[in-house]
Every structure is written in structure tokens, then in C-alpha cells.
Design goal:
single chain, alpha/beta, Rossmann fold, six-stranded mixed beta sheet, 10 helices, about 10% strand
């Protein structure tokens, strides 16, 4: 794997090898069983502890923003969560992790939303979204980057951006403090690309406190193109 820390502090946290949180997105064909297996094998071999993050329920926001009714978006998100869960289980089995041990490593919305530390950080992000125009614009632009891939000729509406930003806000706490939320000595969030706004957050540019025990790394296989440091570059 090619592993690229986003900041110098991210590199420091990565070197501690304490914990990895691997993000796996619903409705993203990038995450084949083989690619998930490779990520798990890499993570299990490098870190003391590992979780896989699956934003299953919040994915409905993106579907609703793409034009589905709320009910249909929620139904499709549940179906996709089941499909993705099966792929993750097969990938875990391929690296010799089965049953309850594998289930314990999967962090979905049901588990995450029950964690007080996550709820506190999410409310912090929502409050900043309401009060800080630069932070709000960063969230909206990050949502636009995702939704433009699904948009037709009419582009992305203001309401669609608002819904997309709600999805993005649910992820930000894990980008800035998965160590504290999951009670780990240090943690790196692992994904195959990093939106520019997340990069800016990790550099401390938007007023959101970042845990000194938190990192973010781009992880890509050697057969892929080079690391994508930001969504816009």
C-alpha cells in the first residue's frame, strides 16, 4: 500500500501504529471485496487495533439530495448497507477474522450514534456550521463535489447541497477525533482520497479543535494512480 499522511502531525500519529479507522463508502464501486480485503490485511498487519467505518444510515441524505424521496432514500440506503455488510464480512473472512470479532470491528451508525463522545463532537460541528460562514461553505463545497457526480444537466440545487452537507457533517467528528470517540490512544482515519476542506480542517484553518492524537492518511494500492491529496486538485 502507498500511505500518504495529510499533515506532519498525521505522520506522527501514523507512526504510533495504535489504531486505524478505515472508511468504506456505500454506493461506491471502488470498494470491491478484494480492495476491502487488501485494506484489512494492511491495517491488521500494521496497527494494534482497527475499525471499519460504514456511514450506512447517513447515506440516505446523499440519495435524497440526488432526487429520491425520503422514504425511498432510506429504503435504498438500508438495502445498500446490507449489500456492503456482506462484502465486508467476506473480506474479513478472507483475512481470517470471523464472527463476533469481525462484527466488533464494524462501526456503523447504530453503534456510533450511541457514543456520547461522538454526539458531543457532532453537535460541535453542527453549531459551527450554523454560526461560521466559512465552515458552512466548506461543508457545502465538499457536498457539491460528491453530488456533481450524480447531477444531471440542471446541476446541484441549493436544497441538495444542504442535504449533502448534513451527510458530510456526520463524518467530520471521525476525521478530527476518532481517537477520543473510540477511546484509542491515537487513531488515523484511512481513505483513498481527502477532500480539500478536510485537509484545511486538519491544518487548523476553520476553528474546529483537532485532537493531537488524530491523523488522516490516504491509502491506495500500488496498482492505482498516485495519492489524491485533495478533492479539488
Amino acid at each position: 500500500m502507498i500511505v500518504t499522511p495529510i499533515t506532519k502531525q498525521c505522520a506522527v500519529v501514523l507512526d504510533r501504529r495504535a489504531h486505524a479507522l478505515i472508511g468504506i463508502s456505500p454506493f461506491n464501486s471502488y470498494f470491491s471485496v478484494e480492495r476491502i480485503r487488501a485494506l484489512l490485511a494492511w491495517g491488521l498487519g500494521r496497527f494494534d487495533a482497527l475499525h471499519v467505518f460504514v456511514p450506512d444510515v447517513p447515506a440516505a441524505y446523499t440519495l435524497e439530495a440526488s432526487g429520491y424521496s425520503r422514504q425511498e432514500a432510506q429504503r435504498k440506503a438500508r438495502r445498500q448497507a446490507n449489500y456492503l455488510g456482506n462484502k465486508i464480512r467476506r473480506a474479513f473472512e478472507a483475512v481470517g477474522v470471523c464472527g463476533a470479532r469481525a462484527d466488533e470491528m464494524v462501526l456503523d451508525w447504530a453503534r456510533l450514534s450511541d457514543m456520547p463522545a461522538y454526539s458531543d463532537r457532532l453537535e460541535e460541528c453542527r453549531a459551527l456550521y450554523r454560526s461560521d460562514s466559512a465552515f458552512r461553505e466548506g461543508c457545502l463545497q465538499s457536498a457539491k463535489w460528491v453530488l456533481q457526480r450524480r447531477a444531471g444537466r440542471n446541476g446541484v440545487s441549493t436544497e441538495a447541497l444542504r442535504l449533502g452537507a448534513k451527510y458530510f457533517l456526520t463524518e467530520i467528528p471521525l476525521f478530527v477525533d476518532s481517537a477520543g470517540i473510540l477511546k484509542q490512544p491515537a487513531s488515523v482515519f484511512c481513505y483513498h482520497q481527502c477532500p480539500r476542506f478536510v485537509h484545511e480542517l486538519l491544518l487548523g484553518q476553520h476553528g474546529l479543535p483537532i485532537s493531537q492524537n488524530q491523523g488522516f492518511v490516504i491509502v491506495r494500492s500500488r496498482t492505482e494512480d498516485g495519492p489524491r491529496a485533495t478533492a479539488a486538485s
